[in-house]
Give the backbone structure.
Amino acid sequence: MKVLVDTHVWLWWLFDPGKLSKSCRRILSDDATDAFFSAASGWELAIKTQLGKLSLPKPLADVYRELDAQNVIWLEIARSHCLRLEMLPLHHRDPFDRMLAAQAAELRLPVLSIDPWFEPYGLQRIW
């Protein structure tokens, strides 16, 4: 299975897995899962920690190393993702979440997220 993982799900997976649904834990622990970490999530974590809106239990570089150790697939932001973003209706205004939605739509990936706002975009959300 291939999934795009929302930023909060990655944080919970690494630091508080009890907050995740059983489905999310099962999917992320399955070696057959291709779990994608978007550059938009990396950007979000960097900005929010710098602004003091997010406190991580470890430095961001250590978070990235932990993700790498779990064979997470880093998903860069491509031109096609930006073009898809331009076409998305404004159901949601958060720029990081909108890029995740554009990437999921463009790559036809379900999204692991607690947030139901992905659904108005016609995306499959798994929780």
In short: The chain has six helices and five strands. The first strand starts at residue 2 and ends at 5.
